[in-house]
Amino acid sequence: MKQKAGLVFTAAAALGMLLTGCNSKSNNGASPSAASPSTPPSASASATPGGNQQVEIFSWWTGAGEEAGLKGLIKEFEGKHANIKVINSAVSGGAGTNAKAVLASRMQGGDPPDAFQVHGGAELNTGWVAADKVIPLNDLYEAEGWKTKFPQDLIDLVSKDGNIYSVPVNIHRGNVVFYNKKIFDSNGLKAPTTFDEFFAVADALKAKGIVPLALGDKEPWTATMLFENVLLGQLGTEDYKKLWTGKLSFDDAKVKTSLETFKKMLSYINSDHAARNWQDAAQLVAKGEAAMNVMGDWAKGYFTTDLKLTANKDFGWVATPNSSGMFMVVTDTFAIPKGTKHKEAAKEWLKVLGSVEGQDVFNPLKGSIPARIDADKSKYDVYGQSTIEDFKASKLAPSMAHGSAAPEGFTTQANQAVNIFVTNGDVNQALKALKQAQSSSIK
Description:
Blueprint: H1 16-19, E1 53-58, H2 64-80, E2 84-88, H3 99-108, E3 115-119, H4 122-129, H5 138-144, H6 152-157, E4 159-160, E5 163-164, E6 167-168, E7 172-173, E8 176-180, H7 181-186, H8 195-207, E9 211-214, H9 221-242, H10 253-266, H11 278-286, E10 290-294, H12 298-306, E11 315-319, E12 326-330, E13 332-335, H13 343-354, H14 356-366, H15 382-393, E14 395-398, H16 408-424, H17 427-441
Parallel strand pairs: 1-2, 1-3, 9-10, 12-14
Antiparallel strand pairs: 3-13, 4-5, 6-13, 7-12, 8-10, 8-11
Helix pairs in contact: 2-12, 2-14, 9-10, 9-16, 10-17, 16-17
């Protein structure tokens, strides 16, 4: 990450996540198999038999390549700490849809896990940090020498007021079109790099009875993610980032054009999109039942780790239309809550996450690239290696759909507005809703 511009992330995240589900103790959407069957999620409050220590880790990594990556990290950790039992309290739901509500309930109820997954940026800094719910990790960064191992812009993303609050384990790219190479090759098509090319390709595919674009918006963040990529392509990185500082209004003509483009893209999606999640949509492409899917590169991890496909043979990829040379950043990090009973064990977990070995075990399986600048590039396939290079050379933009760009309150309202728009296609209504969300959430 060597470009001068760096990341411009707003210090904005609502505390709504801290209030969601606070009147309920149930693990909404929890995966029964994610935690140890003999140990409930709150078991981190007591020691394991024989006086051994334990650490409870909380995430939403329960499916696709992410679960395999998490298991790889746990195996790496257990190899270094045989005396510390790992309690895996993962909660299912894409993008942390369910996990964030469960976590908020536990934090408010005085039952925090020992370490928890959180997106770097607004979700961390003006959510959990502003609420004084996490501990600073400056001492850990000093002891591990991490200040020279992570890009400074990434450290800034997990810092507030001079303190560092979480450890990045990866970098995901959010502006990727994955496509079925067999479909494209057999029909003599090239991967689209502009909106005009996208619509020309989509028309050619549709004429042959092939679904051009797979979408699974059973969880609304996927449609929001598609929309933010249209915004990025139409506005460019600088104007896109101005949306999150209030310097560009959501009733700007460029945003209206983006919605009109988004509406046109939606005319090429699968009819059962509302019944599918992101994995289901990606699978349509993998099986040749659809040609393209716009998704973060966790889809790449799903293709290679779960479906056993080969990058650049079974599937190809290209930056979303008009976003060549841009990189939509999503980073997964882990923080330690205040009040945890196993703080030192949690720090040992974070040490593994931040290590070269941990990152190189996790990321090839997850589909992401390492957050460290000194990771072993040879451990990554052709997709990973090309993305590592793109990350260094591209203009970076924060993801709104994944908590880095905008306050939680805005994202919640945007999800609602986009969900309604997917159904009714009313551009003016969507503009009004997004403008209202901006006015109420972005100061």
